[in-house]
Amino acid sequence: xxxxxxxxxxxxxxxxxxxxxxxxxxxxxxxxxxxxxxxxxxxxxxxxxxxxxxxxxxxxxxxxxxxxxxxxxxxxxxxxxxxxxxxxxxxxxxxxxxxxxxxxxxxxxxxxxxxxxxxxxxxxxxxxxxxxxxxxxxxxxxxxxxxxxxxxxxxxxxxxxxxxxxxxxxxxxxxxxxxxxxxxxxxxxxxxxxxxxxxxxxxxxxxxxxxxxxxxxxxxxxxxxxxx
Length: 228
Fold this sequence. Notes:
2 domains; single chain
């Protein structure tokens, strides 16, 4: 009985902190959740319930984040990370690469408890270019710094590195915004991953994502920070 009580309290806290938007719907269906299942199985049940209810965890998206147990380095950000092959980054270091297609800063903020773990020694985040078509450089900078501070608060002994925004040719106005964000980041006393070696020739045909040479350079930049 005591074990069931503990699991009930744990489950309620889990709902309240991570699944606010689907909390009421899940509580209606608690009788369908099997407490004998492990956490992964229960999480899958909850995700299926969210799908059936047309409810989401954040901005109409449910992110299936990779497990971060025993990982000391996290690289998280938008779809520009899709070309970074985690398994090829390092054979000796525990590096986790977590791209979020179409991701924005608030997508990371709202899922920090899913992304972070106490074993992390280094977090690198590459985010912001999906804001640059609609928001000003100073607003984007403020959001980036706010994200850094939130991660630092949760992991006070972890090094946080901001990956500066990469050139894009699909939208000249957005690229100008990216450049202004990068200029302002360099003026701050914070750790930066410098991607200035990635040029227009390293972009794909659409001018936003990287080609194979661009992905190789981006991976090298990330490794330079990890090794430093």
